[in-house]
Design brief:
The complex is a heterotrimer of chains A (344), B (391) and C (375).
Chain A: H1 2-24, H2 29-36, E1 39-43, E2 47-48, E3 52-54, E4 60-61, H3 63-76, E5 82-86, H4 89-98, E6 103-104, H5 112-117, E7 120-122, E8 127-129, E9 131-136, E10 150-155, H6 159-170, E11 175-180, H7 183-192, E12 197-201, H8 202-210, E13 218-220, E14 228-230, E15 233-235, H9 239-258, H10 265-271, H11 275-280, H12 287-290, H13 297-305, H14 308-315
Parallel strand pairs in A: 1-5, 1-6, 10-11, 10-12
Antiparallel strand pairs in A: 2-3, 3-4, 6-15, 7-15, 8-14, 9-12, 9-13
Chain B: H1 2-48, H2 79-112, H3 117-131, H4 135-148, E1 157-159, E2 163-166, E3 169-172, E4 174-177, H5 180-208, H6 214-233, E5 237-240, E6 243-245, E7 248-250, E8 253-255, H7 257-284, H8 287-295, H9 300-330, H10 334-337, H11 342-354, H12 357-386
Antiparallel strand pairs in B: 1-2, 2-3, 3-8, 4-5, 6-7
Helix pairs in contact in B: 2-3, 2-7, 2-9, 2-11, 3-7, 4-7, 5-6, 7-9, 8-9, 9-12, 11-12
Chain C: H1 2-9, H2 15-31, H3 36-62, H4 82-86, H5 88-93, H6 101-119, H7 126-146, H8 162-188, H9 193-207, H10 211-220, H11 222-225, H12 234-260, H13 263-271, H14 276-306, H15 318-325, H16 335-371
The chains are: A alpha/beta (344), B alpha+beta (391), C mainly alpha (375).
Chain lengths: 344, 391, 375
């Protein structure tokens, strides 16, 4: 008898397991997120000043974090409905592919092979960057060409690892890589003198510099050896989700261009005469519904995080310790590369 | 009551047989179903993400450098080579860890049984202090000590000006010899001759009951033959001492501090377990055995070599081989401190560059399982060879 | 004891103190100064030890800084305990919201009381407490910590951390792997080839892999084998990996216990007409598990230490949260103090458990010897 009960329980469990994929098979990422009620966002390990930091109270801050919050506000109407998964870079893509996170919002560079071979999609570019080098001022190095024989800290599994190998090979120089798991490990290795040079995206280096014991002891070399367009990464299994992530970014950029700010978004929603502002903020048309979002999705989003310019300034720009110049990340109207497609 | 149990014993064998097979069949069926569902999920998930399985990526160029490897590696090598580097680096770290842990563990285990009060207490303090801390903590502490607290190359700690300890690693003098090949060949010949002499000595003792001077003659052969060859052929030994050049040492042999930290932590942690195994195995030898050996007139050295150690070893080897296995598996902590072992360089870097999570994890698991099986097999063979033959 | 009472009562009589002193001297002569060589060696080692303690003491306590908001406040030459103390809440509760921390405290208190009831010999009702701790406590603690239903506000697992997360991983690993481990051990001893073969395969597979690999696999590979809509968070995946690994280890220990149960017990049960399940559940398992309790405790120590490995999958357990804290620019250079703190916590827990296991083993052995039973 006892036996029979066991068998019935097992069979029921098995049936349940079989039934789940049947129910979930057609569900895409968007439906899964809505059902779950939160976005799972893969970010860096929580110690990158300006990008993602986890403070004493457990609150997340930074550019990556604000982007995730904007997405949650757009998709779920609530910027707090987001769960942050801190990932070392070497498990980042695997975690996204395996479905452990919904998207990566970190400095992951868009490359041909990642797009084609890893079968991932970049939903736009939020920071245009390039790879550079940080060295101790006292070494008196003025160019990357003088780095022959250097010991270089870098992050494992990254594009910087590949660019570095190419750069040194084409310049006929040799180097020893010291591979760290995360930015903080590289910073500490550099500080301790385990390596002579730390190579990363310039934005990352600028933020790492602020995390050194004495930032003034360190200089960035003038060479920029690569293009590093970084943006939010999603799987290819749900094109609709990619669209939502892309338009979250595009709307943040458009909002800056149109002067929609955290402080004035409600007011503009009710009083603006600009037809594009009205379409974005849902005062006219059904743009939200076309993506399966609420009518006032953009209002909630901008109210929660502000526009692109505000997010950048708060975390990386003049309003932050990193003090990174906007550079290429200015609006196209100011001579930068940020350009949102029209809302029409 | 009586009648019922009689019926039960009469009925049960067949019934139980049937029930056993039924339950086995149902479990197999369920597992089969589970496997089908899991495979289906895998193919669904892969199809949904537009991925496919395959090992073709192993022949692609890796394009990144590796900081420390025993076999040569350049950026233009393939992922297959990355795998090979990972496996050899894991074996190097584990092998060194096993050697040092064994030496340290035996020393401390014997110290635990030392008649001197403070020596045995000191060994006890070591064991209790070390084994109750997580291995990862040991690794991180040594890593911090060697990488973050050691001086840079220019102010490196020098040992007699031939070896240097810096935060870039341990720089040792490298020895090389011209005509090294001939000397090495002589050494091999000496080892073979010694083994034969030991065997012949044993046969001789078995036949006649007399002992030949095995140890002394072996030592003479092992040292004398290579030395004689070196003198005859005029081999010149050259020792290359590391020299400070620019910001770093060049020449000599350098060991990455990550490797040193890993090996030291593995050795120190596992030595505390090995010490306890050694102590228990020596204590397990019956006191009567010692008394009997003494009664036969064996000297103390003979007693240890002929009576106690063979019996202690039989008790020691199975748990010791298990400890070696633990150490080998624990070497995967290298990934935390950036020593390029299999987990770090293959299941970490290569995995993120190629996105081949399933294939790479399967290969990595296969390597560890194969090494585990090899160690278990070796331990099993030893057990078989040293089992007590009942007469 | 009685000598001390009598000294207190009769302060003028010096004889009892003499006896105590004489015993000490006898011990010292036997242990510390049996030969001149031993005496010298002992003196050197004790002196070295004293020197070590004396040179650490000013750093660790006397010159240490106990409060401050950054490394800059630690101006003294001693340790900077301000780092640990200012972040103590974080090291214990992780990022758990301050207003809800009573829930962690409650879950912890119940755990301590339950364990005390199980481990202290004098407290009755071991079987009931054991079943309660194994079956009722886990869902209760899960509800208390996670919340989100039955009137408690939800606290996401990404806010869990510190000692609390270490204990959650450790306790779930022990509780969840126990039934699987016992089933595997029974399977391994089974005459039925399918059960035997599958159990051996499972046990050898997981035992042969490093925990780091198992955790990595759980996080990057396991989700591929789950249904598309199903999503476990990193904590869930990490615990799943640890349970697989742990149940294989546990199975080997329980197997040892099963082998140690005398054959006569099986035969007696058979003679009474017990079937396989009734023999196992009522006769064999209770004896086998009692025999292997020391092994189980030792295994739990190993598991507790191994929980630190969840660092590799991005969880902020005690060790990781302290390591992360020491890379905060305001506290750069505080790693030593942090590691000492983590070491103290783990060492205290593990040493206490190992002493308990040791005492239990001792009393079990002496009882068996008294009863003259099989060893």
């Amino acid at each position: 008898m006892r036996h029979r009960v066991g068998e019935i329980v097992c069979a029921a469990a098995m049936a349940a397991l079989l039934a789940v994929p049947a129910a979930a098979g057609s569900n895409g990422t968007v439906d899964a997120i809505k059902k779950r009620g939160e976005v799972v966002c893969g970010v860096s390990t929580g110690q990158s000043t300006g990008m993602s930091t986890l403070d004493n109270k457990g609150d997340w801050q930074g550019f990556e974090v604000d982007f995730c919050r904007a997405l949650a506000a757009a998709l779920l109407g609530d910027a707090t409905k987001v769960k942050f998964a801190p990932l070392e870079f070497k498990v980042a893509f695997a975690s996204l592919q395996s479905g452990a996170v919904d998207l990566l919002a970190r400095t992951a560079t868009w490359t041909f092979s990642r797009d084609a071979e890893l079968n991932l999609d970049w939903a736009g570019i939020y920071i245009y960057d390039g790879q550079g080098f940080m060295v101790a001022k006292k070494l008196n190095v003025s160019s990357a060409k003088e780095l022959d024989g250097a010991t270089i800290c870098l992050t494992g599994g990254s594009t910087t690892e590949l660019n570095l190998a190419d750069y040194f090979r084409t310049n006929g120089m040799s180097y020893t890589p010291i591979v760290g798991n995360a930015r903080e490990q590289n910073q500490q290795n550099l500080e301790a003198g385990r390596c002579d040079v730390y190579t990363n995206e310039l934005g990352g280096l600028a933020s790492s510099r602020t995390a050194m014991k004495n930032p003034d002891d360190w200089v960035l070399l003038p060479e920029v050896i690569s293009k590093e367009p970084t943006g939010p990464v999603v799987r290819q299994d749900d094109p609709r989700f990619r669209d939502i992530v892309y338009w979250t970014l595009a709307t943040l950029i458009a909002a800056e261009e149109l002067g929609i700010k955290q402080a004035n978004v409600r007011e503009m929603a009710s009083s603006s005469d600009n037809p594009e502002v009205k379409r974005i903020l849902g005062t006219t048309g059904e743009f939200g519904a076309m993506l399966g979002l609420s009518k006032d999705w953009a209002v909630r989003m901008i109210e929660a995080t502000g526009n692109y310019g505000e997010i950048f300034d708060r975390n990386l720009g003049q309003g932050s310790p990193v003090k990174l110049a906007r550079g290429l990340n200015r609006l196209w109207t100011d001579g930068g590369l940020l350009y949102a497609p029209p809302f029409r | 009551m009586n009648g019922r149990s009689e019926i039960r014993t009469w009925v049960s064998p067949n019934w139980r047989w049937l029930r056993g097979w039924l339950s086995q069949a149902s479990v197999l069926l369920l597992l089969g179903l589970g496997a089908v569902v899991a495979t289906q999920n895998l193919s669904d998930n892969l199809a949904m993400r537009g991925l496919s399985l395959g090992f073709g990526f192993l022949w692609q160029q890796a394009g990144f450098g590796i900081g420390f490897s025993i076999i040569s590696f350049t950026e233009t090598d393939t992922y297959w080579r990355v795998f090979a580097v990972g496996v050899t680096n894991t074996l190097v770290a584990a092998g060194l860890g096993i050697v040092f842990a064994t030496v340290l563990g035996f020393a401390i285990g014997i110290a635990r049984l030392a008649p001197n009060w403070s020596v045995s207490r000191l060994a006890l303090v070591y064991v209790e202090l070390v084994r109750n801390l997580p291995l990862l903590l040991h690794v991180l502490v040594w890593y911090n000590l060697l990488v973050r607290a050691m001086p840079p190359p220019r102010e490196g700690i020098s040992v007699a000006n031939v070896a240097f300890l810096t935060n870039r690693g341990l720089y040792l003098p490298a020895a090389s010899a011209s005509n090294g090949g001939v000397v090495f060949a002589a050494l091999v010949v000496a080892v073979v001759v010694t083994l034969f002499w030991v065997y012949a000595g044993r046969v001789h003792q078995y036949r006649t009951g007399r002992q030949r001077p095995v140890a002394a003659v072996s030592a003479v052969i092992l040292v004398g033959l290579p030395l004689l060859t070196a003198l005859t052929f005029g081999a010149r030994f050259r020792i290359e001492v590391p020299k400070l050049h620019g910001f770093n040492f060049i020449g000599g042999y350098s060991v990455a501090p990550e490797l040193v930290a890993l090996v030291v932590a593995l050795a120190i942690y596992n030595a505390s377990f090995i010490a306890e195994l050694v102590r228990a195995s020596i204590e397990s030898v019956n006191r009567g055995q010692r008394d009997a050996a003494a009664a036969l007139g064996l000297r103390r050295g003979q007693m240890l070599r002929l009576v106690i150690i063979p019996q202690a070893l039989r008790v020691l080897i199975p748990p010791l081989s298990n400890q070696y296995l633990q150490l080998l598996k624990a070497s995967s902590l290298a990934t935390v401190i950036g020593y390029p072992d299999l987990m770090n360089v293959f299941a970490g870097t290569a995995l993120n560059q190629t996105g081949r999570a399933v294939e790479i994890m399967l290969m990595t698991m296969a390597v560890y399982l194969a090494i585990s099986a090899a160690i278990a097999l070796a331990s099993g063979i030893f057990n078989h060879l040293t089992r007590i033959v009942e007469q | 004891m009685s000598t001390r009472i009598s000294t207190a009562g009769q302060p003028f009589q010096a004889a009892p103190q003499h006896a105590w002193f004489r015993r000490l001297m006898a011990w010292a002569r036997g242990n510390l100064f049996p030969t001149p060589f031993d005496a010298a060696l002992n003196l050197v080692i004790v002196a070295l030890f004293a020197w070590l303690v004396a040179s650490m003491l000013p750093w660790a306590l006397l010159d240490a800084t106990w409060s401050g908001g950054s490394r800059a406040d630690c101006t003294g030459t001693g340790a900077c305990w301000a780092f640990v103390l200012s972040r103590l809440d974080q090291f214990i509760y992780g990022f758990y919201p301050a207003a809800e921390r009573w829930r962690v405290n409650l879950a912890g208190t119940v755990l301590i009381l339950g364990l005390a009831a199980l481990l202290i010999r004098a407290v009755p009702g071991k079987r009931v407490t054991g079943l309660l701790m194994l079956l009722v406590y886990p869902p209760f603690a899960f509800w208390l910590l996670k919340g989100g239903f039955l009137g408690l506000t939800g606290v996401q697992t990404d806010r869990w951390g510190g000692l609390m997360l270490t204990l959650v991983v450790g306790v779930s690993g022990i509780v969840l792997s126990f039934p699987i481990g016992v089933a595997l051990a029974l399977g391994r001893r089974s005459d039925l080839p399918v059960f035997h073969g599958l159990s051996v395969l499972f046990i050898e597979l997981w035992r042969g892999l490093p925990m780091v690999t198992v955790l990595f696999m759980a996080i990057v590979m396991l989700p591929y084998f789950l249904p598309a809509g199903m999503k476990l968070d990193s904590l869930g995946l990490a615990i799943a990996g640890i349970v697989m690994f742990q149940s294989a280890c546990l199975a080997e220990i329980v197997k040892g216990g099963l082998q140690a149960v005398p054959k006569g017990q099986y035969e007696a049960a058979k003679a009474l007409g017990f079937g396989y399940w009734r023999t196992s559940v009522y006769i064999v398992l209770p004896q086998a598990i009692r025999i292997v309790i020391p092994g189980l405790v030792n295994n739990s120590i190993a598991l507790l230490k191994d929980t630190t490995l969840v660092m590799v999958v991005g969880l902020f357990d005690l060790l990781n949260i302290v390591a992360a804290g020491s890379s905060d620019p305001r506290w750069l250079g505080s790693a030593t103090e942090g590691y000492i703190f983590v070491g103290l916590v783990f060492w205290t827990l593990c040493f206490a458990m190992s002493r308990y296991s040791h005492r239990l083993e001792h009393s079990l052995r002496s009882r068996r010897q008294r009863l003259g039973g099989v060893s």
